[in-house]
Amino acid sequence: MNNMRTPLSKVRGLGSAKEGTDHFWRQRVTAVANVPLFLFFILFIVAYSGESYAVVAGALSNPLVAVLMGLMVISGVIHMRLGMQVIIEDYIHAEGMKVSLLILNTFFSIVIGAVSLFAVLKLGFGG
Using one digit for the tens of pLDDT, what is the confidence trace for 52-63? Predict the structure, then answer.
């Protein structure tokens, strides 16, 4: 009689981490978002390969292109961070090393995302 909780209330407790399937779904949603965004990116690269800097910068100054590139960067960096987090959590067993690598993973993702977004915004605004 110690535990009067129903199975449903146990499930809603979301486990000891209190996160449930949030990480799983974020990784899947970014993967689905990456398909059209990276197809656009590849087509853009193929279409403008061999062109001068001015032509490519002009194409990136189109608001639609700049927004799609920005979304690609954001979605790609989030997906990269989540994927590396899973790898670190699964294969690094020393707790101190695991925490250090998770922190470095987050900082690396922020730096890569910030620099990439800066480049897209600079070209998007005609810089």
Answer: 999 999 999 999
Global confidence as pTM: 0.81
- Indicate the Cα dihedral angle 121, 123, 124, 127, nearest 10°: 90
In contact, 72 and 37? CB cutoff 8 Å = yes
Residue (of 63, 81, 69) closest to 38 by Cα position? 69
Structure tokens at 41: 């990116």
Going along the chain from its start, the domains and CATH numbers come out as 24-124 (1.20.1300.10)
Total Cβ atoms within 10 A of residue 98: 14
C-alpha span between 19 and 17 (Å, rounded): 5
Query: By C-alpha distance, which of 74, 46, 66 is closest to 121?
Result: 66
d(CA 9, CA 114): 41
| Whole-number pLDDT of residue 23 | 85
Could you report the per-residue pLDDT of 64-118, keeping only the tens digit for each? 999 999 999 999 999 999 999 999 999 999 999 999 999 999 999 999 999 999 9
